[in-house]
Write a structure and sequence with these properties.
By secondary structure, the protein is an all-alpha fold. Helices cover about 85% and strands about 0% of the residues. The chain has one domain. It is a multi-pass membrane protein.
Length: about 220
């Protein structure tokens, strides 16, 4: 009489050894946390892109810089990165202009203020990207550890049998391979998201840098 073994995913997980189950639980936890940050970063980057476009439209519409500065100051907590860069640069510009007549020092001080704000904005956008990169690079190896351990247990169990068939080996190998599958399930979305977000943040950063140069030129012309 042939006994049919249940090789469903849930049964394989339930019947796996303790170490393999711990590996699977760790990978599942990493996957959930990475998906949380994937959605958070996607919304954050989308919002940053939208606010950048809105501020660029307002800035290049030819409005008064003082009025734009007052608007940026009033909505500081809801402003985008480019708007905060503009606010920092123009605030330093007006402060130095009232104290000094050295045009180069005024422009340099404004650029330093914008550069410091730029770095904070980019750091905020890049926050937790390192976690996604780590999940993408480490998860397959964690899954492989569970797979190797499960296969070792499977073959160790065969040492007590006089004759081994595929039905004896298959469940142990299958439950071990589930750990690799879960590792890949955690790693692939994290790697794809990391590459996409890094590309988007680089593009936003380039727009910030271009704005700082163009705004510095505008301030320099105002000093003449």
């Amino acid at each position: 009489m042939t006994v049919t073994q249940d090789l469903s995913i849930l049964s394989l997980i339930a019947e796996a050894s303790l170490l393999v189950q711990l590996v699977m639980a760790l990978l599942a936890g990493l996957s959930l946390v990475s998906w949380y940050w994937i959605f958070r970063k996607a919304f954050q980057i989308r919002a940053a892109r939208t606010r950048t476009l809105e501020f660029e439209r307002d800035f290049w519409s030819g409005g008064d810089l003082n009025a734009l500065y007052q608007s940026a100051t009033a909505s500081r907590h809801h402003a985008g990165g480019m708007e905060r860069i503009f606010e920092a640069g123009y605030r330093e510009y007006t402060k130095l202009r009232a104290k000094s007549h050295d045009h180069d020092a005024i422009i340099e001080g404004s650029r330093r203020a914008m550069r410091a704000t730029y770095q904070r904005e980019v750091d905020d956008l890049e926050a937790h990207l390192a976690f996604l990169a780590s999940v993408g690079s480490v998860s397959p190896y964690i899954g492989l550890l569970g797979t190797v351990w499960g296969i070792m247990n499977s073959f160790r169990g065969l040492s007590n049998m006089t004759s081994a068939t595929l039905s004896h080996v298959a469940p142990g190998i299958a439950e071990a391979l589930v750990a690799t599958a879960i590792g890949l399930f955690a790693a692939i979305p994290a790697v794809v998201a990391y590459n996409r977000f890094a590309h988007d943040i680089d593009r936003i950063g380039i727009r910030f840098e271009s704005f700082m140069e163009e705004f510095s030129n505008i301030l320099q012309r105002q000093l003449r």
